[in-house]
Amino acid sequence: MGQISLRYVDLKGVIAPGELEERCRGAAPILKRMAEGDPKYADFTGWRTVDETAGPARVDYLLQEAERVRRDADAFVVIGIGGSNQASRAAIKALRPKDGPAILWAGNTISAAEMARTLEELDGCRSVYIDCIAKNFETLEPGIAFRVLRQYLEKRYGEQEAAKRIFATGTPGSTLHQLCKDHGYTFLTFPERVGGRFSVLSDVGLFPMAVAGVDIRAVTAGMREMRDRLFSEPAENNLALRYACIRKLLLEKGYAMEMLSFFEPRLNYFAKWWVQTFAESEGKENTALYPIVSSNSEDLHAVGQYVQQGRPILFETFLRVEARDASVVLPHEEKKDYFDYLEDKDFWDINEAAREGTFAAHSQRGIPCLEFTLPAIDAHTLGQLYYYFIFACCLSCELLGVNPFDQPGVEAYKHEMFQRLGKPGKEK
Ligand code: PA5
Question: What global pTM score does this model have?
Fold first, then answer.
């Protein structure tokens, strides 16, 4: 199996020679603490070993439950928001497994139009199953979507049959757990010591992937491989620490944004997961890089202008994919459209030229450019990437001096919203 690698090109010398290595050496104790399990974060790092929350026996169980759904369902609705749905959506959209039920997403918006559209879509499906994922079942979006979809299933199939079609993933002892016990829904575990955006290494991320047909044994194998690598690579060469230190150095040198750039739109939802991981973990105490995305070549025709000639406030992190997994060749054409110079060329190679050209143009402008080379877009590589970015994000938070595992800032809008909605205890 191929390994992920990272290169850094900095034609303006923003980071001086030796500066990165020195920073990595200085941060070695942080790496050691994170790899060994920092006691101060013991309540939040259930994901660290992979095996605690996504060991082989658990994966077998999830595959068995998923098979029950796959045998019967033609639609499976994942209800959840933020950390509860982003990782599985990212993998399913990137890998596009073909033989499973249609996967729908709910509880990630309060848009009436979206809820109505989902119900309409379900009316056209033969057999519907749902999974409500919510850590403590206090979040408004999944809470109200679950109520609507539960009642939809009960009306359509009757209470007893509906119960067989309802999964809920929550913390043991939560209201969601109680609902499952009272009404016979299948309960899956949202591990106590794992926060939403770190939950890909658990039932939360893995069960929807398994229902869709993603090879979750390969995902978890990739996670373990990356874990072993990051725990053993010395500080100066550590793939995650180098990335975290480059980010920190560039932040100190005045860069405000990191832009994740890629040329495979199937990574769009992976990029959303990446944005959430970094923004919600790091964006505290008036510091941190603002994570943004460029899905190319489309966005080169939009933000590309700003990147080349706008304020020099961002650096770029490219994702480059090695394995060719598709091919479309431009055919011969008699009509004069003036694209003959591309005749017989594969879209894959044309896209590669766009990627290389973009990297060259942006780095020549003086933009610090990082590039991750991914062996492929497959389940094993995605597993590596999930573990990698989670681990790197924790290191990065430590370098910033912020707690990776809380998100106090999201309470402000909720407070205002709850006042307007008259939530008991939150009235004006
Ligand atoms: O990363 C996080 O902790 C958040 O993004 C949560 O996942 C999100 O707010 C949903 O929370 P819950 O699972 O409790 O509904």
Answer: 0.97
